[in-house]
Amino acid sequence: MNARERLIVGLDVPTLGEAEKIVSTLGDDILYYKIGYQLVFAGGLEFARELAQSGKKIFLDMKLLDIDNTIASGVENIVKMGMSMLTLHAYPKAMKAAVEAAKGSDLCLLGVTVLTSMDEQDLTAAGYEYDPHTLVLRRAEQALAAGMGGIVCSAEESSAVRKIVGPNMAIVTPGIRPAGSDKGDQKRVMTPADALKAGSSHLVVARPIVKAPDPKDAARAILAEMDAALR
């Protein structure tokens, strides 16, 4: 895959109008878009379907978690929407139900390990006995066993996760920040080049592109950095 197939631009904006403007501005430079809660609750699901029909790839970031039957029913309908990637929390039962429901489709199911906004203190406060690194690796093993298409983790864990899941599973990394950019609310971040070298297969970038004075220039700079790292 080249950089264009690996860069996912997060449409983390409050309105469809803003999302449509970003997609129009970025044009053919960007193939992949992430649509999450913020845009979903502003009409983003139909927009996701339209983008997929136009030839774009859509990473639907819903982080699903529910009883098996509800997970399966949801995944079956998401398959019909033509989405390329879908996240769910990396709980074994949920992952197994999703894999069974998506069987035979092109939907890549991604298990969310530990959110990149969380550190060890946050996990302790939430009742987990593991530090972020240990929990990520445990969930990577469970995702592999469940037959998932990939996982979501910080680039800090990508190298260790790649050793567990092998060469074929996707490792999708949020918390990507070009050198010198603001971390925002992310705590475990890495530059695009370093993330790819660490073993990430896809990079999710939102604010450094969508909030840039010139989103197209910002996207092209990141693509260029990624292409250089892939050579």
Q: Which overall shape is indicated by the principal axes computed on the Cα atoms?
A: globular
Query: What is the helix content?
Result: 40-55%
What kind of assembly state do the chains in view correspond to? single chain
Task: List segments where confidence is low: pLDDT < 50 over at least 5 consecutive residues.
Answer: none
**Biggest sheet descriptor:** 8 strands, parallel, barrel
Give the CA-CA distance, first to last residue. 11 Å
Helix-strand pattern: HEHEHEHEHEHHEHEHEHH
Strand order of the largest sheet: 1-2-3-4-5-6-7-8
Global Rg: 17 Å
**On the 0-100 scale, what is the average pLDDT?**
93
Please count the helical segments. 11
Which percent band covers the strand fraction?
Answer: 15-25%
**β-strand number:** 8
Structural class computed from helices and strand pairing: alpha/beta
Q: What are its keywords?
A:
231 residues; alpha/beta; eight-stranded parallel β-barrel; 8 strands
Detailed description of the structure:
This protein has helices at 3-6, 16-26, 37-53, 68-81, 92-102, 120-125, 132-146, 155-165, 192-198, 207-210, 215-230; strands at residues 7-10, 32-35, 57-64, 85-89, 108-112, 150-152, 170-173, 202-205. It has 231 residues and is an alpha/beta fold. Helix content is 50%, strand content 16%. The model has no long low-confidence stretch (mean pLDDT 93).
Describe the secondary structure blueprint for this structure:
Blueprint: H1 3-6, E1 7-10, H2 16-26, E2 32-35, H3 37-53, E3 57-64, H4 68-81, E4 85-89, H5 92-102, E5 108-112, H6 120-125, H7 132-146, E6 150-152, H8 155-165, E7 170-173, H9 192-198, E8 202-205, H10 207-210, H11 215-230
Parallel strand pairs: 1-2, 1-8, 2-3, 3-4, 4-5, 5-6, 6-7, 7-8
